[in-house]
Amino acid sequence: MSLNAISVSYFVIFCNLLINLLSFAGQTVSGGKAALEVSYFGVRVHREDHNLCEETSCPISPGKFVLSHTQTLPAFTPPGSYTLRMKMEDANKHQLTCFSFGFKIGFGSSVSSM
Q1: I want to staple 56 with a disulfide (CB 3.0 to 4.6 A). Which of 45, 67, 85, 102 is the partner?
Q2: Measuring CA to CA, which residue among 75, 88, 101, 76 is closest to residue 10?
Q3: 21: domain range?
Q4: Cα 57–60–65 angle (5° rounding)?
């Protein structure tokens, strides 16, 4: 079973990175985790795990669904190139999906896609 990412959107508001993942589930998903990693110029600087059911409503029914996550950035986030990678697993630790995207943070918390 896998989840197919349809689109990922993100933006920064003050010190929060908001991520919305529009995805498609082939069958019901009743739980699991979302592992988030952030790299700065290719070096991992942050990692955390989240209960999948805290990021979206569970059970996830077959079809389209949205997973939303807000990541609080440190008060001073160095400007530069970042990569965010999210891997989702079901309750049996089978990988559902994995995606990543690059973005740049400029002075004053401006963000742009790479």
Answers
A1: 67
A2: 101
A3: 3-113
A4: 80
